[in-house]
Write a structure and sequence with these properties.
This protein is an all-alpha fold. The protein has a single domain, classed as MetI-like (MetI-like fold, Orthogonal Bundle), CATH 1.10.3720.10. Helix content is 82%, strand content 0%. The longest helix has 38 residues. The radius of gyration is 23 Å and the shape is elongated. The termini are far apart.
Length: 239
């Protein structure tokens, strides 16, 4: 037992401290990369998701959709189908080695790739949220002389966001965990740092268990924050 504890202590010192007691800074930088990619991708995904959802909803609700709406809706459907039907890692590799082959800004490429991927899922989440709103509210807005996009912006979307907040929260958590695959393009996230330290120290247990615990702590914090935010929204609705 004492030998096991001593071995764990040695692995911890080699994996997180190193010769200058600062190897843990590499993990923090890796975590920073994961957070930056997550926030940037989520911002792109939400904006893109709202646009796609509104286009598809407009088409579904239009009795005689104009030609331009038919074309844009078809493009949106193809985008959602392709993104949801192909692996995230493949999309990331295509973006880095084909679309942005001249660029070496790996963080930007990762944000765009994850943002485009997230946009397809967020679009379907928001679309389902819009469909959950009573159609009578749209009719009421039109009877007051409001334009379609104004009704969506001021009436429908705010209510839909409240309904789909748990699903959006799950998408953010999934996005954060999926950032672990950016290591395939060489971006120094938590996974890449663990692999590099494992190669230097020949220790496998502590680096990978360590980053697993870091992801778990971050996900637990996000879950707690989202739950608290959702409770506050419900409390404000009761008032």
């Amino acid at each position: 037992m004492n030998d096991f504890i001593a071995d764990l202590k040695l692995q911890f010192e080699q994996s997180f401290l190193g010769e200058h007691n600062d190897r843990w800074l590499l993990y923090l930088k890796g975590l920073e990369v994961a957070i930056i990619v997550t926030i940037g991708a989520l911002a792109i995904g939400i904006v893109l998701g709202i646009l796609i959802a509104m286009i598809r909803t407009s088409y579904d609700q239009a009795k005689k959709p104009p030609v331009w709406l038919k074309i844009v809706n078809k493009i949106a459907k193809i985008y959602v189908t392709v993104i949801r039907g192909t692996p995230m890692m493949v999309q990331l590799l295509i973006m880095y080695f084909i679309v942005f082959e001249e660029s070496r800004n790996m963080t930007m490429v990762a944000i765009i790739a994850f943002g485009l991927n997230s946009g397809a899922y967020v679009a379907e989440i928001i679309r389902s949220g819009i469909q959950s709103i009573n159609p009578g509210q749209m009719e009421a807005g039109k009877s007051l002389g409001m334009k379609y996009w104004t009704i969506m912006k001021r009436v429908i979307i705010p209510q839909a966001i409240k309904n789909i907040l748990p699903a959006l929260g799950n998408e953010m958590i999934t996005l954060f965990k999926d950032t672990s695959i950016v290591t395939v393009i060489g971006l120094a996230d938590l996974t890449k740092v663990a692999i590099q330290i494992q190669a230097r120290t020949y220790q496998r247990f502590m680096p990978f268990i360590g980053i697993a615990l870091m992801y778990l702590v971050c996900v637990l914090f996000l879950t707690w924050a989202l739950d608290k935010f959702e409770r506050r929204l419900k409390a404000s609705d009761r008032r």
